[in-house]
């Protein structure tokens, strides 16, 4: 095992290792997918979330062992990078890898657990939500700040932004699922495409495009059309992948 723990939480090392060694029986399962799973635990008063990443395929077992950082390590380091740049994410606590001589097994990312939040998905599913448009505009401003800071969050999907009301008003946005990020200047098209992965409704796209156009100094109607075009193309690609997957499964 290889473990790295953020400085304020190093006293948790022994307990963290115990939890990882008994991961399937620890705490409570929050999500179990075909690839990854997430559990919540409480250790010495600390409420934590642990994400377990799937076993890499044969090639990636070697790649992640010697060439590329694991998803867990990247999540931890990108989380710290976000915080250093003034953005929010549940505080990174540790990353742990099951290492063998020439390959990588499972990897785990541990962070503080955020309570009492909603996700962007709630805005999609419930347009009657209190402060719906206000939150949506604030979210657009938040994404614009990310872009201005040269932060390209590739997994900008409905479940990966946690939203909380600030104690002094306003809205706070916390990014999760951090292993796919780039830190570089974005082209205008990349900025627009970054909204297409949100699966937003047409009305939401219009509100976000209008606000983003104001922030960038772009023509509003043209920006709305570009947002909608990017959204259509993303959905078409997504549908093609689903159809291809079904065909491959039938053949298999």
- Average pLDDT works out at 92
Distance between the termini: 36 Å
CATH class of the largest domain: Mainly Alpha
As for the number of domains, it is 2
Using only C-alpha atoms, the radius of gyration works out to 20 Å
Spatial sequence of strands, sheet with the most strands: 1-5-6-4-3-2
List how many beta strands DSSP finds. 11
Question: According to CATH, what is the topology of the largest domain?
Answer: Transferase(Phosphotransferase), domain 1
Structural class: alpha+beta
CATH architecture of the largest domain: Orthogonal Bundle
Topology:
Layout: E1 2-5, H1 13-21, E2 28-32, E3 37-43, E4 46-53, H2 58-66, H3 71-84, E5 92-99, E6 104-112, E7 118-119, H4 120-125, H5 132-148, E8 151-153, E9 161-165, E10 171-175, E11 181-183, H6 188-196, H7 202-216, H8 220-251
Antiparallel strand pairs: 1-5, 2-3, 3-4, 4-6, 5-6, 7-9, 8-11, 9-10
Describe the protein in words.
The strands form three sheets. The protein has a six-stranded antiparallel beta sheet with strand order 1-5-6-4-3-2, with helices on both faces. A three-stranded antiparallel beta sheet has the order 7-9-10. It has helices at residues 13-21, 58-66, 71-84, 120-125, 132-148, 188-196, 202-216, 220-251; strands at residues 2-5, 28-32, 37-43, 46-53, 92-99, 104-112, 118-119, 151-153, 161-165, 171-175, 181-183. The model has no long low-confidence stretch (mean pLDDT 92). Helix 5 packs across helix 7 (202-216). It has two domains: 2-112, Phosphorylase Kinase, domain 1; 118-242, Transferase(Phosphotransferase), domain 1. The longest helix is centred in the last third of the chain and has 32 residues, at 220-251. A hairpin with a 2-residue loop joins strand 3 (37-43) and strand 4. It is built from eight helices and eleven strands. The two termini are 36 Å apart. It has 252 residues and is of the alpha+beta class.
């Amino acid at each position: 095992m290889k473990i790295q723990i953020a400085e304020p939480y190093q006293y948790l090392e022994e307990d963290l290792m115990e939890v990882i060694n008994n991961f399937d029986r620890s705490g409570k399962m929050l999500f179990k997918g075909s690839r990854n799973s997430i559990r919540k635990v409480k250790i010495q008063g600390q409420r934590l979330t642990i994400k377990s990443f799937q076993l890499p395929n044969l090639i990636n077992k070697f790649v992640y062992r010697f060439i590329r950082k694991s998803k867990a390590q990247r999540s931890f380091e990108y989380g710290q990078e976000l915080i250093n740049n003034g953005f929010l994410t549940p505080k990174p606590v540790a990353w742990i890898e099951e290492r063998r001589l020439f390959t990588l097994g499972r990897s785990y990312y541990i962070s503080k657990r955020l309570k009492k939040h909603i996700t962007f998905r709630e805005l999609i599913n419930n347009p009657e939500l209190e402060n719906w448009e206000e939150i949506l505009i604030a979210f657009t401003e938040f994404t614009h700040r990310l872009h201005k800071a040269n932060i390209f969050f590739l997994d900008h999907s409905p479940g990966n932004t946690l939203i909380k009301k600030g104690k002094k008003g306003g809205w706070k946005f916390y990014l999760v699922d951090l292993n796919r990020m780039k830190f570089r200047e974005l082209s205008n098209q990349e900025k627009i495409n970054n909204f297409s992965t949100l699966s937003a409704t047409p009305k939401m796209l219009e509100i976000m495009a209008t606000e983003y156009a104001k922030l960038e100094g772009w023509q509003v109607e043209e920006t709305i059309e570009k947002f909608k075009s990017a959204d259509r193309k993303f959905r078409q690609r997504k549908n093609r992948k689903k159809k291809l997957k079904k065909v491959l499964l039938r053949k298999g």
